[in-house]
Amino acid sequence: MELDSIDRRILEVLQKSGRISNAELSEVANLSPSACHRRVQRLEKDGYIRDYVALLDPRKMGRPTTVFVEITLSGQADELLDAFEKAVAKVPDVLECHLMAGTADYLLKVVAGDTEDFARIHRKHLATLPGVAQMQSSFALRNVRQTTALPV
């Protein structure tokens, strides 16, 4: 399916205001409410809209510290990569895990309450992940820009 300018506008608005009513969205998209609803349903069905979520404030949730962890594994066998990925998916403090090309095998985005909490996460979870040979952690000092909105 090819996206037209109306689809792109709908996606743009929904990324920033996921709770907008269909009536308001139809006005922004310059469509009738029923036509707008059909388009949103099609965008959902075709997988352009993956999900609707509430974005929580990490500070209010007691997790103001963001740590980026580079992990190098002891090998590259499929079994080791699979075991690592299954185990890291179970660590609730890991918000993101990316398989990388470069110096590290994986890059993790971890949230913690503070440095002591991160030390606990490191000891209890990260250091026990299968195949970990080396880890390097970098603490974010300040969030300069963060968005969940993709360019459309």
TrEMBL record:
GO terms for cellular component: cytosol. It holds the Pfam family AsnC_trans_reg. SMART domains: HTH_ASNC. Residues 3-64 form the HTH asnC-type domain. CDD domains: HTH_ARSR. GO terms for biological process: regulation of DNA-templated transcription; response to amino acid. Keywords: DNA-binding, Transcription, Transcription regulation. GO terms for molecular function: sequence-specific DNA binding. The keyword Transport does not apply. SUPFAM superfamilies: Dimeric alpha+beta barrel (SSF54909), Winged helix' DNA-binding domain (SSF46785). It comes from the Bacteria. This is Leucine-responsive regulatory protein. It comes from Yoonia vestfoldensis.
